């Protein structure tokens, strides 16, 4: 199955971000991608964290969700909207959910995952605290993706900071996942230090493919993100990467090769708790 990790440098207004994403997704589809994954905050990187509050949509209705459904249908893609702000149910004053939504090529929503682990970082120069405006999710989510090659991929969803919590991915592996998605907006500092090694570790230890689209560049709000969107196979090999700037990372994931790796080294069967 050909997959696409979409790298963006999102700005502070939704409409230009969706236009930019549309161009990149059309490029992915034209090059044969079946699955395309947008990065975290693909629709907006606001001047302030609280800008998300005004853009929150109820699940199932809203211009960003409508755009995702329409784009998946028009391009014939399995499309993952990295994250968008969804209203909390029940409502929570001053907080939204940071949610990843999956749409089939028919434009049907098939999965919703709310980011479980919320980033907090302070190094004396930069400070981030997602919990100030985000409500954490509490449920891991998998979905099934029947690809054109006849293989039914079991796909586990995660977002950015989740990457530091291996127990989430091990749970997906024990539920039969063979592909993990990690749409992200890693900071330049933490990404430079840990991004690739964590992605490859999650792939190796769970014997799963990984698709990890990212924000990558200097944004309109002044923030700098690490980028290096990549696709990693179950052996930990990086199949494709883009360091900076908007673009598409395309790679082939082979279920036959994945199954062979698991037979050669059946590490998941050797676990002792």
Strand order of the largest sheet: 5-4-3-2-1-14
- The CATH H-level superfamily is Carbon-nitrogen hydrolase
What is the 3D shape? globular
Helical residue percent band: 25-40%
What's the CATH first level?
Alpha Beta
The Cα radius of gyration reads: 17 Å
- How would you spell out the order of helices and strands? EHEHHEEEEEEEHEHEEEEH
User: Got a strand count?
Assistant: 14
Q: Mind telling me which CATH architecture this is?
A: 4-Layer Sandwich
Mean pLDDT: 97
What would the CATH topology be?
A: Nitrilase/N-carbamoyl-D-aminoacid amidohydrolase
Q: Identify low-pLDDT runs.
A: none
Number of helices: 6
Strand content: 25-35%
Mind summarizing the main beta sheet? 6 strands, mixed
Structural features:
14 strands, 6-stranded mixed beta sheet, alpha/beta, 6 helices, 273 residues, Nitrilase/N-carbamoyl-D-aminoacid amidohydrolase, 26% strand
Topology:
Layout: E1 2-7, H1 14-30, E2 35-37, H2 51-55, H3 63-75, E3 78-87, E4 96-103, E5 109-114, E6 120-122, E7 127-129, E8 142-146, E9 152-157, H4 166-174, E10 179-181, H5 188-206, E11 209-212, E12 229-232, E13 238-242, E14 247-252, H6 255-264
Parallel strand pairs: 1-2, 2-3, 9-10, 10-11
Antiparallel strand pairs: 1-14, 3-4, 4-5, 6-7, 8-9, 11-12, 12-13
Helix pairs in contact: 1-3
């Amino acid at each position: 199955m050909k997959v696409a990790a979409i790298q963006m440098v999102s700005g502070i207004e939704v409409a230009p971000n969706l236009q930019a994403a549309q161009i990149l997704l059309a490029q992915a589809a034209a090059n044969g991608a079946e699955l395309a994954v947008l990065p975290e905050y693909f629709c907006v990187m606001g001047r302030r964290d609280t800008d998300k509050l005004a853009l929150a949509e109820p699940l199932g209705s809203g211009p960003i969700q409508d755009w995702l459904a329409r784009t998946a249908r028009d391009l014939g893609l399995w499309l993952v909207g990295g994250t968008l702000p969804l209203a909390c149910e029940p409502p929570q004053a001053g907080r939204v959910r940071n949610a990843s939504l999956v749409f089939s090529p028919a434009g049907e929503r098939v999965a919703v995952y709310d980011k479980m682990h919320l980033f907090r970082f302070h190094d004396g120069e930069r400070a981030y605290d997602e919990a100030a405006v985000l409500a954490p999710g509490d449920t891991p989510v998998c979905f099934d993706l029947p690809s054109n090659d006849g293989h039914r991929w079991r796909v586990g969803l995660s977002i950015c900071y989740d990457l530091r919590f291996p127990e989430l991915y091990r749970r997906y592996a024990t539920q039969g996942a063979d592909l993990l998605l990690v749409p992200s907006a890693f900071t330049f500092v933490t990404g430079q230090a840990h991004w690739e090694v964590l992605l490859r570790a999650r792939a190796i230890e769970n014997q799963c493919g990984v698709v990890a689209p990212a924000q990558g560049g200097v944004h309109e709000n002044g923030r700098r993100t690490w980028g290096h969107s990549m696709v990693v196979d179950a052996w930990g090999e990086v199949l494709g990467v883009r360091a900076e700037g908007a673009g598409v990372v395309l790679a082939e994931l082979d279920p036959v090769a994945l199954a062979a790796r698991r037979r050669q080294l059946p590490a998941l069967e050797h676990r002792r708790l």
